[in-house]
Design goal:
The protein contains 14 helices and 16 strands. The chain has helices spanning about 45-60, 80-85, 90-110, 125-135, 215-225, 240-255, 285-290, 295-305, 315-340, 355-365, 370-390, 395-405, 420-430, 435-450; strands spanning about 10, 15-20, 30-35, 65-70, 140, 150, 175, 185-195, 210, 230-235, 260-265, 270, 275, 315, 450-455, 460-465. Strands 5, 6, 7, 8 and 9 form a five-stranded mixed sheet that branches. A four-stranded parallel sheet has the order 4-3-10-11, sandwiched between helices. Strands 13-12-14 form a three-stranded mixed sheet. Helix 13 (about 420-430) packs antiparallel against helix 14. The chain is globular. The two termini are about 25 Å apart. Bound molecules: zinc ion (ZN).
């Protein structure tokens, strides 16, 4: 396996500086990313953040680390409850529907599945235990309504992540909603007492029936799976306040430990220069993009490379067309050398290749993928010339494997010919008749045409051999 052997530098939101990354127990890296609130279909702006986390994880692996990633599903909060009621569905039914759609979209975008994907509603006991600790050590108190609040005055570091001006804080002010802005900062809800609007949603606790606040969910699940102190916590920049600020307060006050060593945040996305909004009709899902004739690879390439993760990305259809063309150039290049015999390539390991040095150098600078790709496209042009001339070639298979371990483009998806499709349909019919002999001989016929067939829960999957 090829690795980058230089230090990796990442921008820590907490310190506002670029820091050399040193995990607590190398080569392991314990990484938590806030997952989606599953009350509707995620839009491509959400996926910009999840692609950033995927990039981070892939770069960590290329730099020789072993990331262990946890991403939660927020399947109970103000928004999920409201959506379940609007759809007249039990909460769990609504949220599992959107979790399925979300995981399909992850697959379409070649986003590596996090090692663990805990749901908040499966961990209510952990949250109650954490809140009990905070009550015992005086960082939380019970309100008259049966809710439990975190006392922000009890934590002098409150506001350091978001650079809050503590002068403006109103002592004693309380916030019941999960989401609020800096101007209305105050004691926030750890446990929300049941209200008639909550319908069937509620759990028993020492403080009566209710449900956890959104922020405590992530504190409880991240520390449960990764330990009270772990390496990286990341998410979209909209989560810095109040969500991550509150996570820090709850976790550090409960354990007395540092909680997270490195905070990373991905900036937001615009569409045609405007904020995404239902009224503008510019909130696109992955399915909307596919319906316009683009693939997950094109969208992945655009969202990863059109802007550095800490800069605003402006999505336009023209930019997506350009991304499709760029992916096409890579595919053409791959097609040119993929069929060549192994003897055509240098046997040297890619470590000594200038491309790898510059590719790693760019990524080491706070994941500068656009810069890294600039080096790659230069290399692509040079090797295309070498192919034209029949000149010696570097170890292209190994180099591409290293580059694509980060880019994640994988194989171009080709459409099977009508003959292959017909064979596959006949095979599917044979299998439903339980005619395994016929099914096997059709598999062979498909393989003769240069395709493989795999049986998945969704049906047959055809791939170029
Ligand atoms: Zn979270």
């Amino acid at each position: 396996m090829t690795h980058c052997r230089i230090p990796l530098h990442l921008f820590n939101t907490f310190s506002r500086t670029l820091e050399e990354f040193r995990p607590i127990a190398p080569p392991k890296v314990r990484l938590y990313a806030c997952g989606p609130t599953v009350y509707g279909r995620a839009h491509i702006g959400n996926f910009r953040t999840f692609l950033f986390v995927d990039l981070l994880r892939r770069v960590l692996a290329l730099f020789g680390f072993e990331p262990e990633q946890v991403m939660n599903y927020t399947d109970v909060d103000d928004k999920t409850i409201a959506a379940a009621q609007a759809a007249s569905l039990p909460l769990r039914e609504l949220t599992s529907r959107y979790i399925d759609l979300f995981e399909q979209d992850l697959q379409t975008l070649h986003i590596l599945l996090p090692d663990r994907r805990p749901k908040a509603t499966d961990h209510i006991g952990l949250m109650i235990a954490l809140i009990e600790k905070l009550l015992q050590n005086g960082h939380a108190y019970r309100g008259e309504d049966g809710s439990v609040y975190f006392r922000i005055d009890s934590f002098p570091d409150y506001g350091r992540l978001a650079h809050l001006d503590r002068q403006g804080l109103q002592p004693g002010a309380r916030i019941a909603q999960d989401e609020y802005v800096k101007e209305s900062v105050g004691d926030f809800a750890l446990w929300k007492a049941w209200k008639p609007e909550d319908g069937e949603v509620g759990w028993d606790s020492p403080w009566g029936k209710g449900r956890p606040g959104w922020h405590i969910e992530c504190s409880a699940m991240s520390m449960h799976y990764l330990g009270e102190e772990f390496d990286i916590h990341c998410g979209g920049s909209d989560l810095v306040f109040p969500h991550h600020e509150n996570e820090i307060a709850q976790s550090r006050c409960a354990t007395g430990k540092e909680f997270v060593h490195l905070w990373l945040h991905c900036s937001h996305m615009l569409v045609d220069g405007e904020k995404m909004s239902k009224s503008l009709g510019n909130v696109y899902s992955v399915a909307d993009v596919l319906a316009k004739g683009y693939s997950g690879r094109h969208l992945r390439f655009l969202l990863l490379t059109a802007a550095h993760y800490r800069q605003t990305l402006n999505f336009t259809w023209e930019a997506l067309a350009a991304a499709k063309a760029a992916v096409g150039r890579i595919d053409d290049w791959l097609a040119r050398w993929r069929q060549l015999p192994a003897e055509r390539f240098a046997a040297a390991t890619p470590e000594g290749e200038p491309l790898l040095a510059s590719f790693c150098g760019s990524l080491a600078d706070d994941l500068n993928l656009s810069d890294a790709l600039g080096h790659f496209f230069e290399f692509l042009r040079a090797t295309n010339r070498a192919l034209d001339l029949g000149a010696p070639l570097p170890n292209l298979p190994a180099l591409w494997q290293a580059v694509d371990s980060v880019l994640g483009l994988g194989e171009p998806l080709e459409t099977p010919s009508s003959l292959v499709q017909e064979l596959a349909d006949r095979r599917s019919a044979a299998r439903s008749r339980r005619d395994w002999k016929e099914s096997d001989s059709l598999r062979e016929a498909i393989e003769k045409e240069g395709w493989t067939v795999r049986d998945t829960p969704e049906g047959q999957e055809l791939r170029r051999r």
